[in-house]
Amino acid sequence: MSLRVDVLTLFPEMFDGVFGSSILGKAHARGLVELGTLNFRAYATNKHNTVDDYPFGGGGGMVIQPEPIFAAVESLLEKQRSSRKPRIILMCPQGARFSQEKAEELAAEDHLIFICGHYEGIDERVREHLVTDELSIGDFVLTGGELAAMTMIDAVVRLLPDALGNSTSARSDSFCSGLLEHPQYTRPAEFRGWKVPDVLLSGHHANIEKWRRTQSIERTWKRRPELLDGVELSKKEKIFLEQLKLEGK
Prior knowledge:
CATH architecture of the largest domain: 3-Layer(aba) Sandwich
Number of helices: 9
CATH superfamily of the largest domain: SPOUT methyltransferase, trefoil knot domain
CATH topology of the largest domain: Alpha/beta knot
Helix content: 25-40%
Mean pLDDT: 93
Radius of gyration: 23 Å
Strand order of the largest sheet: 2-1-6-5-8
């Protein structure tokens, strides 16, 4: 069974190009993922089709009402084929930081529903009684949750079997092993006097893997040293890391 992804949004047209292009478009065409958007304004309960109102207690901005969100999600649940409950994910700057680990977790689900908020926020009862996850792509605020949802969906779908066309591509990505990805090179072997490392041209796969591993460790130490705390290193790799620290690289 393919993964189903639904997005609740006031601006479904924002997803047209994203869902129809690149890896997402190909995965959808091959039946690996079903991608859909639902404008929850269609579930407004008033004659003006508004989905927001002033916050109780006063304050600036408008708050999205709970009724259209609950009704939209319930309409999707009536159509779902899987017996597993979907993950209902609220895009929220207060949420947990999205990560590669979370992407891998979500890629194992049958159905994901993303809720994209706008204005000042969403009624708290949506958080308390409907969503299963609150996620953020960083410590900043966007106009709405659409761009964050696109980012997360792309990260999830590319992990589906056969989505990339190469079963090893996703496994070698940054963060999949806990380390940043090693440097990559392609033809020509020499460009403007800059040469590809000899080991990559040697055809010796064991040496190539060793080089890539040490390069990943070095790059992680230079750019994201905090990641190394969660990586299991061999004795030789620990010695290599200590040398990097002593040399101040």
